[in-house]
């Protein structure tokens, strides 16, 4: 059963000079539906009345925690960005109006350990998906999850849609490739293919290895006496952190426009890792200086020091702006981790601190 509100398609009847709003459910396919963004986007699309397919890769155990609450409303298809045939099958089966390509190897440090695999998933994966769309259903609208990591050693501040890229990691390099192949398929084949250049966005569903969640979870563990310290890398790095729930709205809006265009999505405010730490620990009544250690092993071979985005175009054209600000985001994540750990303790499970 799908929710009763349906996505709308407008059927024009020019001879009578008026239009009829015909309620037609749209079909969307999300790659990376088991990830942070995939889960929020799936919720949003279901609310909009879409039929939602999700592509998942085979694993020795199911990793559906983030979508367990909506799984009954989703149609899951097995597929992998490494396997062209599975992508053809996914497009042929779902026949989507919209494809959101969110799947990627998304953790920057791993991209130095697995640079070739990162290029395959995060870079060439986009080409494979675009080819499947071009050959099977070229009227499909395509969203590519581009990243502020492409700005890397930034050429100007703040960064906007015209800022040159200077990626600093194999992940960033792969994302630049995927970004430009999306532009190229739009220009070569007239596909409705767009890239959203999204700055860091977080939530209680963020993976535990990313710095925001590592801090919120680590601080909550310390508060509950489950850990004594938290090891981090570069405390000076600055990011433009937003809330994932806000950012998936922008993805959807980009595919509802008359013309395919790329957009920067950001909050327009940047904070350092140490400011994130300060905010999280003080929310719990703790002084972070007593607990946080810098571990040189967590420093990166090449760092992205400062990202700050200008979302002016998105505000003008899409009517999009962020709703959740930095302090709210930090509190939301810390409160969620505290509640999560307390639930685990009361259920008699002993939470495993990863700090
Ligand atoms: P995430 O939580 O790490 O999720 C990544 C998803 O990709 C998971 O569902 C994962 O599936 C899937 N995946 C990985 N390799 C795959 C493959 N070979 N075939 C099929 N699926 C594969 O990432 P996220 O934070 O939601 O980010 C979503 C996208 O936006 C990513 O492309 C990321 O690079 C990009 N992005 C993120 C941010 C951010 O701040 N979050 C900013 C800019 C851009 P499994 O569950 O099987 O591992
Ligand atoms: N992960 C992590 N762990 N990062 C740390 C730590 C630590 O212990 N200590 C300091 N940092 C610093 C990193 O050096 C980096 O400068 C910053 O915190 C943010 O790191 P991450 O949270 O891992 O995110 P990211 O900016 O590298 O990448 C994320 O954002 C990109 C958009 O700019 C990911 O979501 C990418 O997939 C995304 O494209």
List the helices and strands and how they pair.
Blueprint: E1 8-13, E2 18-23, E3 27-31, H1 36-47, E4 51-56, E5 74-78, H2 84-94, E6 98-101, H3 108-113, H4 115-136, E7 141-147, H5 170-189, E8 192-198, E9 201-202, H6 211-223, E10 230-232, E11 238-239, E12 242-243, H7 244-254, E13 263-265, E14 271-272, H8 273-283, E15 292-294, H9 312-318, H10 326-346
Parallel strand pairs: 3-4, 3-6, 4-5, 6-7, 7-8, 8-13, 9-12, 10-15
Antiparallel strand pairs: 1-2, 11-14
Helix pairs in contact: 1-7, 2-4, 4-5, 6-8, 6-10, 8-10
The structure holds NADP nicotinamide-adenine-dinucleotide phosphate and guanosine-5'-diphosphate-alpha-D-mannose.
NADP nicotinamide-adenine-dinucleotide phosphate binds at residues 31-32, 34-38, 57, 59, 63, 80-82, 102-106, 121, 145, 147, 198, 200-201, 207.
Description:
- This protein is α/β, with parallel strands linked by helices.
- It folds into two domains: 25-203 and 242-265, 3-Layer(aba) Sandwich (Rossmann fold); 211-238 and 270-305 and 326-346, UDP-galactose 4-epimerase, domain 1 (Alpha-Beta Complex), CATH 3.90.25.
- Helix content is 38%, strand content 18%.
- The termini are far apart.
- Bound molecules: NADP nicotinamide-adenine-dinucleotide phosphate (NAP) and guanosine-5'-diphosphate-alpha-D-mannose.
- NADP nicotinamide-adenine-dinucleotide phosphate binds at residues 31-32, 34-38, 57, 59, 63, 80-82, 102-106, 121, 145, 147, 198, 200-201, 207.
- NADP nicotinamide-adenine-dinucleotide phosphate binds next to helix 1 and strand 7.
